[in-house]
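Moderator note: this is an archived Q&A kept for reference. The question asked for a predicted structure of one protein chain; the sequence and the answer are reproduced below.
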Amino acid sequence: MTDWVVNLIDAGGYWGIVLLMALENIFPPIPSELIMGIGGIRVGQGRMEMLPLLIAGTIGTTIGNYFWYWIGWKLGVERLRPLVRRFGRILTIQWREVEMLNRLFQRHGEKIVFGFRFMPAFRTMVSLPAGLFRMGQVRFLTWTTGGALIWNIILAGSGYVLGAHFRRIDDYLGPLSTAAIGAVVLIYLWRLLRWRPNGDEVA
């Protein structure tokens, strides 16, 4: 994957960064750490400049996150009712939990979206419930963009400082991504085995 990312960045420049970062948030297996890290290396080599790199990366990240936010917004929380009624056992969720998440996003949506921008695997997933629970678009975009900018500064700065050695990060990202996905699967299986309805019905 490293060579593919490098080739696209070298061929597309800042537009390649925008495209890759948008895709990274739509298809999470593409690691933002690698994209912005390589961009930082190119800054160190004099082939890119830091400010346009950060702007491009943040725009791409915001586009990718807004894609899932828009899907959630179009779906809407009320359309989850028949899904929860029919597939609650498989989804390991009850309607009271959906309502709890809704209240949580209404009260602390900014903190959730901003904080999740720094979490592997979850930074993209948080955009869907933000849209489902009708978090305001300006609030969502503001906190998503702010978190993405800070994260991209960290990644690009690391690439700039570490130079070519940063390319070895791909050797570590694969196992880490697999571990994160494995943890999500284990949590789901644990909930599935322990899930018991408490009698609350979806109206």
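Archived answer notes: DSSP finds nine helices and no strands in the chain.
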